[in-house]
């Protein structure tokens, strides 16, 4: 499968997952998001959706692993660090949550400064 075909499949499964989320079909959305990421392992938008669906299912450890992967792929992704902060908080990991929240704030400030 070419890179273009892989990306197209990833996007098709991503949009299907968004529709499933809107319908409240979280388990089906997780499968579609996973298919999207499988087609394009660097598609962070699909990873964000997957992390959110897993969070909604209270599968925090899986969601944390996905958010950590996003942060590895794009260390400046504010949402990845925000998601990690929320997920760590839900698990009662307060120091980790605070650290990720601080990273997200600093990254947000840096991005605002670049736009100025």
Describe the structure.
The structure is a single chain. The protein is mainly alpha-helical. The mean pLDDT is 95. It is 83% helix and 0% strand. Helix 1 packs parallel to helix 3, helix 2 runs antiparallel to helix 3 and helix 5 runs antiparallel to helix 6. The radius of gyration is 15 Å and the shape is globular.
Précis, in short:
With 116 residues, the protein is mostly helical. Helix content is 83%, strand content 0%. The protein contains six helices and no strands.
Number of strands: 0
Order of helices and strands: HHHHHH
Describe the global form.
globular
* Structural class computed from helices and strand pairing: mainly alpha
Q: Would you tell me which CATH topology applies? A: Serine Threonine Protein Phosphatase 5, Tetratricopeptide repeat
Q: Whole-Å distance between the termini?
A: 42 Å
CATH architecture: Alpha Horseshoe
* The CATH superfamily title: Tetratricopeptide repeat domain
Portion of residues within helices: over 70%
Which CATH class? Mainly Alpha
What oligomeric arrangement do these chains adopt? Answer: single chain
Number of helices, counting only DSSP H or I runs of 4 residues or more: 6
**Relative strand content:** under 5%
Cα Rg: 15 Å
Low-pLDDT segments, ≥5 res: none
State mean pLDDT (0 to 100 scale).
Answer: 95
Q: What's the domain count?
A: 1
């Amino acid at each position: 499968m070419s890179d273009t075909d892989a990306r197209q499949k990833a996007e098709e499964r991503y949009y299907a997952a968004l529709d499933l989320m809107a319908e409240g079909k979280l388990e089906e959305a997780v499968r579609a998001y996973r298919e999207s990421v499988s087609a394009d392992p660097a598609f962070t938008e699909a990873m964000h959706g997957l992390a959110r669906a897993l969070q909604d299912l209270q599968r925090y450890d899986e969601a944390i692993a996905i958010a950590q992967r996003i942060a590895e792929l794009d260390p400046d992704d504010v949402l990845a660090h925000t998601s990690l902060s929320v997920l760590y908080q839900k698990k009662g990991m307060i120091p980790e949550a605070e650290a990720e929240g601080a990273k997200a704030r600093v990254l947000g400030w840096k991005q605002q400064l670049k736009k100025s």
